[in-house]
């Protein structure tokens, strides 16, 4: 059972979040590709959160969190590898709030530019979660900013869970029942929110997570039952390098069946397949679920599988170099 001392969201919080943010976010499309279906031997449906405000599902959680700020809040702060930082900066600007984002110095330049473009101040730090949290503490000590965590927060988890509500509504409207919903997992806000929503609305649907083998703390945590809180991540999927949050792990243990891992080459192959076959420009983290289907085909064969394309923010030069490296090696 989850730790009773944790402030965990319930399914009602996801429904409340959906109402609170409905006018602020996009209802993203659910698309298909007959070519990719043939390649994978499964019926795939792609939830296009890379087309969300700020280019990632993170806009949902950030918007919901700012609907629940303490009275008198004038400044917010967070740490982020990019997408949550951009989402919070965007949501804060819309409300006339100041925003500071602590970012690892390894964050893609495109993500740094997005955060700055929405008007936030950026503070650079080292690459580990400990580095990020230490730098954020200094920001709070000097400014008194209200912290909006990137994933380990009930408001954030509830906001991300609205992705799953849309998946349920869209699949029913199109006359099919998902067998599996597959999301990438880094800090775990999206996977925890998806698991919570599916357990309440469609408990027959299997919820799975996918992560890089070079950042496999979530799989190790779930399979061992012991929360892995540190790792040295080695993956091109920069949005998935952090470890699971405490609240996220508690919910994932209750609502997620398993987490599968994928190779770095698999991520590149999946990203290239999405770019060329669906014309959807997604970042490496968003390609991880498709990589999971490609590398573990028996788990998904002939199933209706919804994959969340989590974001589309990346350096195009880096993407070109990844594809060039693949061509050279092959």
Précis, in short:
By secondary structure, this protein is an alpha/beta fold.
How would you portray this structure in words?
- With 330 residues, the protein is an alpha/beta fold.
- The chain has two domains: 11-57 and 153-329, 3-Layer(aba) Sandwich (Rossmann fold), CATH 3.40.50.1100; 59-147, Rossmann fold.
- Helix content is 48%, strand content 15%.
- It contains 14 helices and ten strands.
- The strands form two sheets. The protein has a six-stranded mixed sheet, with helices on both faces. Strands 5-4-3-6 form a four-stranded parallel sheet, sandwiched between helices.
- The longest helix is centred in the middle third of the chain and has 20 residues, at 154-173.
List the helices and strands and how they pair.
Layout (H helix, E strand, L loop, with lengths): L10 H11 L8 E2 L2 H7 L2 E6 L9 H9 L8 E5 L3 H12 L3 E7 L4 H9 L3 E5 L3 H15 L2 E2 L6 H20 L6 E5 L4 H13 L4 E7 L4 H8 L21 H10 L2 E5 L1 H15 L5 H12 L1 H4 L3 E6 L6 H14 L1
Parallel strand pairs: 2-10, 3-4, 3-6, 4-5, 7-8, 7-10, 8-9
Antiparallel strand pairs: 1-2
Helix pairs in contact: 1-7, 3-4, 3-7, 4-5, 7-8, 8-10, 11-12
For this entry, what is the oligomeric state of its chains? single chain
CATH architecture title of the largest domain: 3-Layer(aba) Sandwich
Task: Tell me the number of structural domains.
Answer: 2
How big a fraction of the residues is strand? 15-25%
Give the CATH topology of the largest domain.
Rossmann fold
Mean pLDDT over the residues: 94
The number of helical elements comes to 14
Number of strands: 10
CATH class of the largest domain: Alpha Beta
Shape descriptor reads: globular
Uncertain runs: none
Instruction: State the secondary-structure class.
Output: alpha/beta
Major beta sheet summary: 6 strands, mixed
Q: Percent helix among the residues?
A: 40-55%
Rg from Cα: 18 Å
Distance between the termini: 48 Å
**Order of the strands making up the biggest sheet:** 1-2-10-7-8-9
Q: What order do the helices and strands follow?
A: HEHEHEHEHEHEHEHEHHEHHHEH
């Amino acid at each position: 059972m989850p730790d009773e001392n944790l402030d965990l969201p319930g399914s009602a919080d996801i429904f409340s979040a959906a109402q609170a943010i409905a006018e602020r976010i996009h209802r993203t499309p659910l698309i298909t590709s007959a070519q990719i279906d043939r390649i994978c031997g499964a019926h795939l449906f792609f939830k296009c959160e890379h087309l969300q405000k700020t280019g990632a599902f993170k806009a949902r959680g950030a918007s919901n969190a700012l609907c629940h700020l303490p009275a008198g809040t004038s400044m917010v702060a967070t740490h982020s590898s990019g997408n949550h930082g951009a989402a919070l900066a965007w949501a804060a600007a819309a409300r006339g709030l100041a925003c500071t984002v602590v970012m690892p110095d390894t964050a893609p330049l495109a993500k740094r530019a997005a955060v700055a473009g929405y008007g936030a101040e950026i503070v650079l730090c080292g690459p580990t979660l400990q580095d990020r949290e230490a730098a954020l503490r200094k920001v709070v000590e000097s400014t008194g900013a209200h912290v909006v965590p990137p994933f380990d927060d009930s408001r954030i988890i509830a906001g991300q869970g609205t992705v799953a509500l849309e998946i349920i509504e869209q699949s029913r409207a199109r006359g099919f029942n998902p067998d599996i919903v597959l999301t990438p997992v880094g800090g775990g806000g999206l996977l925890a929110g998806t698991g919570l929503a599916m357990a309440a609305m469609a408990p027959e649907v299997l919820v799975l997570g996918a992560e890089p083998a070079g950042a496999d703390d979530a799989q190790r945590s779930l399979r061992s039952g012991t929360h892995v809180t540190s790792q040295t991540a080695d993956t091109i999927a920069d949005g998935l390098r952090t470890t699971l949050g405490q609240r996220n792990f508690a919910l994932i243990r209750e609502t997620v069946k398993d987490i599968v891992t994928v190779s770095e080459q698999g991520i590149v192959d999946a990203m290239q397949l999405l770019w060329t076959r669906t014309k959807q420009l997604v970042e490496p983290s968003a390609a991880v679920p498709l990589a999971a289907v490609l590398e573990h085909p028996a788990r998904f064969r002939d199933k209706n599988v919804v994959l969340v394309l989590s974001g589309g923010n990346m350096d195009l030069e880096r993407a070109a170099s990844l594809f060039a490296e693949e061509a050279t090696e092959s």
